[in-house]
Amino acid sequence: MEVTDLKTRHILYAAIFVVGVVVFAATTGPAQLSVLQVFQAVGVHLPFVGKDFHVSSLDEALVWQLVMPRICLGLLVGAMLASAGAAYQGVFLNPLADPYLLGVASGAGLGATIVLIFLPTALSWSFNPLPLAAFLGAIVSVLLTFALGKAAGNVRNASSLLLAGIAIAAFFTAVQTFLQQRSSVGQIQDVYSWILGSLATAGWSDVTLILPYVVLTVLILVSMRRLLDVLAVGDIEAQSFGVKASTVRNIIIAAATLGTAAAVSVSGLIGFVGIIVPHMIRLIAGPSYKRILPLSILYGGGFLVLADYLARTVLYPEEVPLGVITAFLGAPFFLVVLRTSKRLV
Amino acid sequence: MKLFLSENPETESDISGGKEHNPLVKIDGLSAAVNGELLLKDVSFEIEKGDLVGLVGKNGVGKTTLIQAFIEGAHRRIYGGKIEIAGKRFPAKNIKESAKLVAYVPQRPNIPKQMLVADYVMLGRTAYQGYLAQSSALDLRITGEVTEQLNLTDFAAHTMGELSGGELQRVVIARALAQKTPFLILDEPTTSLDIYYQLTVLSLLKQLCLLQGVTVLCSLHDINLAAKYCDQLVILGQKSLLACGRPSSVITKENIQRAFSVDADLHFVNGELVVMPQLTGDGSYATDVALEEL
After folding, report:
1. Strands B78-85, B240-245: parallel, antiparallel or unpaired by DSSP?
2. d(CA A58, CA A67)
3. Is the CB of A121 inside 8 Å of chain B's CB atoms?
4. Which of A160, A203, B99, B244 has CA atoms 20 to 30 A from the CA of B41?
5. B186, A237 in Cβ contact below 8 A?
């Protein structure tokens, strides 16, 4: 009997996609480096392999300081947004749920806006407070959503949480718009470009900043993948299988929110990845989270690196905001897949 | 089945019918309430291993509450009494252990329409699976066996949304069987089915009891079907136990009147007990009068 467990071939295809995208993005940038040059430039930073490589210091700096951190950050942020999106869709039994559902986006947006408007010199400080402010804003807004959702309704009912999320998002967005409206044109532009998302300023410090959060979140979500399927039969039946649905929901929401907040704090609000990637996987690999969740991590990372490649090349030397690329590319492609697929979402 | 302390139930003298007395399930003084409203009062009975037990009674007398006493989440309504299954206290210390004692088929299961039948049956194995592990060979063997047993092998790769009502009922039962529990409870498994599927489901449950030693408790509305298939009947009336025993001894005119407020005649057709509601002189049922008064 064929059960839709994750099979080795699924991981193999996804891994080929990710490796292909990474090699492509690393070697086809404006610098026109060969695959070998890129490998050598990366190799000198790895133990054991790089001893005999000879790379010019300019190429090495270009690859190691600019290209690689940006690709690594793209992988982490994409993996995080896609898997968190899949997790939210499973928890709320709603195909339209995305990682920003419970107020992460508006909270992070407000945090970033406050820094950009009130601390305009902050970006040149040795410690950049913007990611921290965005992260705190995101966490505070989700905690408020939980407090309000629990006060407003039954804890076991996910819809009161959803409605609380909408109210908190509206409130935070209102405050942010008010602050923006009282600031200068340049500041508005800064806020706006942060909101559209970008990996342009990525450095290794960003990667190491969010790596622990992403690893922790991804581990928790992967271990919960079966239970996401169980949630679809409702709380009472889930109990009869030995699953405490409310506890599972809280763990998944907490993990997905923490990871999303970390991703958003360094990349801004990159939209659409959290919806499009899980749904594409659903169309290809079926509706079970046993497959959707692990594959979202891989394909999400690859998808965002690809989108970021386009963001920095289509109007080179100018950068297009990443959120514009993900939506501009993702939406039509998604529609084509939807129309040609026989499965319903 | 043996009966102990309860309000005023009819006791059976011949309790074990020659079988060794070996109750799998003991329910002792069970009482339930929600928001101060009494749902179930001091219900006690025992179920022998391998018996198919029917739970009958009017709507609202507590059948579902009694059924849900065997689900851990709903169990908190229960404030008194205790349940023992296979010598173990229920609910167990750990929710996963409880799920290895009882499997539950609700009256209206939530059907995830996109889920594959094979995956749905595999949900029954949840309590046996680790967080990071794939489905084990044992899981696959068990789900394969129950799928075949219920003639669902051809549907394994279909989605739940593609199945008919009768097929869905079998899939949900397959899921419960995959849980490999000694005790299986079903809330009105025949209510939404036509007569053909009603008979199919009940004879399936009967086979499970006879051939595999599964013990089954199910609530039923059709007292004639219950009499035909069940080894024991539990009749609830007004939130408490009214009668409990073999169908031939508990289906009496008096019990039918007390449980359902319906005057009925008992007939034997081809050796089977048949309950017929009495007609009044002008050809209407006694309950029709109540409607006219409304």
Report:
1. unpaired
2. 12
3. no
4. B99
5. no
Q: Which residues contact A76 (CB under 8 A, 6 or more apart)?
A: A207, A210, A211, A214, A263, A301
**At which residue do the structure tokens 């899921």 appear?**
B175
Tell me: pLDDT of A53 over 80.
no
Instruction: Flag if A1 and B124 touch (Cβ within 8 Å).
Output: no
* Distance of alpha carbon A245 from alpha carbon B73, whole angstroms: 10
A89 part of contact set with chain B, CB < 8 Å: no
Residues of A in contact with B98 (CB under 8 A): 242
Phi and psi at residue B136, in whole multiples of 5°? -80, 170
A224 touches chain B (CB under 8 A): yes
Size of interface A-B (CB pairs under 8 A): 97
Residue with tokens 């928890």: A91
Output the CA torsion B177→B183→B189→B190 (10° steps). 100
Q: What is the pLDDT of residues B154-200, one digit of tens each?
A: 998 899 999 988 889 999 999 999 999 999 999 999 888 888 889 98
Strands B102-105 and B183-186: parallel
Q: How far apart are CA B120 and CA B95, in angstroms?
A: 20
**Which residues, including other chains, have CB under 8 Å from residue A113's CB and lie 6 or more apart?**
A176, A179, A180, A191
With CB atoms and an 8 Å threshold, state whether B135 touches A5: yes
CB contact under 8 A, B123 and A230: yes
Yes or no: say if A260 and A99 are a contact pair by the CB < 8 Å rule.
yes
The chain B residue lying nearest A227, using CA atoms, is B126
Here the tokens at position A124 are 């040149």
> A119 by DSSP, 3-state: which?
coil
Which residues on chain B are in Cβ contact (under 8 Å) with A226? 126, 129, 131
ipTM of this predicted structure? 0.82
Distance CA B56, CA B260 (A): 10
Torsion A310-A311-A312-A317 (CA) sign = positive
Q: How far apart are CA A175 and CA A287, in angstroms?
A: 39
Which CATH code for domain A8-340? 1.10.3470.10
Per-residue model confidence as pLDDT tens digits over A106-130: 999 999 899 888 887 766 777 778 8
How far is the C-alpha of A253 from the C-alpha of A248, rounded, in Å? Answer: 9
Mean pLDDT, consecutive 10-residue stretches, chain B (294 aa), reads 40 46 87 83 92 92 87 67 88 88 92 91 92 86 91 90 90 94 93 87 92 93 92 91 91 89 86 80 58 50
**Contacts B178 to A, Cβ<8 Å:** none
DSSP helix/strand/coil, B47: strand
The separation between CA A325 and the C-alpha centre of its own chain, rounded to angstroms, equals: 14
- Taking the CA of residue B224 and the nearest CA in chain A, the distance in Å comes to 29
Chain A neighbors of B77, CB-CB under 8 A: none
Hey, which residues does B265 pair with through a beta bridge?
A: B276
